[in-house]
Amino acid sequence: MGSEFDRFVGIPYADKGRGEAVDCWGLVCRVFSELRGIELPSYAEHYVTAADRRSIAALIAGELDPWLPVVDGEEQPFDCVLMKECGFPRHIGIVTRPGMLLHVQRAETSMIERYRSGPLYHRVVGIYRFMRDGE
Length: 135
What we know:
- The chain has helices spanning 24-36, 53-62; strands spanning 67-69, 80-85, 88-97, 100-103, 111-114, 124-130.
- By secondary structure, it is α+β, with helices and mostly antiparallel strands.
- The protein has a six-stranded antiparallel β-sheet.
- Helices cover 17% and strands 25% of the residues.
- Strand 2 (80-85) and strand 3 (88-97) form a beta hairpin.
- It has a single domain, classed as endopeptidase fold (from Nostoc punctiforme) (Alpha-Beta Complex).
- This is Tail assembly protein.
């Protein structure tokens, strides 16, 4: 049985991508827009390239206000998993169901992958839920 996230599998990666090709945050923005009607900020203007590790990590740390931490095991679809990349918390994916996330990495297309085991497990920093004002 498929999920509403399946149509986002196979999207190509593009540095700072916010259109047909995306980076990891661009994918989150696209999914939130198309499936939830929520327009998240692009942030593309706040960093030079995806390789700008320190700027991206600082940007994430400064923009967590509308994101509530989720207790491990209580995640739901649309929660976001923040992961380390090159030692910095700068990669993100979207929970499609507990234990699985949708994400895209450099030189790959978007995919659904396990985050509670396998190569992503040790990279997970935290799980967060977006809360609009009044939720």
